[in-house]
Amino acid sequence: MPEPEHPEREREWRARAGTEGREPEDTRKYEGETENDAERRRRRAHFLRELNEAKALRDRVQPRRARAARMRQQMRMRTFRW
């Protein structure tokens, strides 16, 4: 697996995410092994779950910013032309 471009940032991110010291799931694969669609979908679903969880956490932590973002999205939807 290639080295990350900014290892100190990755370490900081892992510390925040609580995954310090754990290897990413991709390191379990061999270099020549091709991934199948089921594995890719499983990893994508996991990523999307974590993304939604992070967005929900951000909304709880920063309610004013979240409300402003909702208002901007509503305004975009009102002005959108089909």
From TrEMBL:
Residue numbers spanned by region Disordered: 1-41, 58-82
Origin superkingdom: Bacteria
UniProt feature, compositional bias: Basic and acidic residues: 1-40
Basic residues compositional bias, start-end: 63-82
Protein name, entry field: Uncharacterized protein
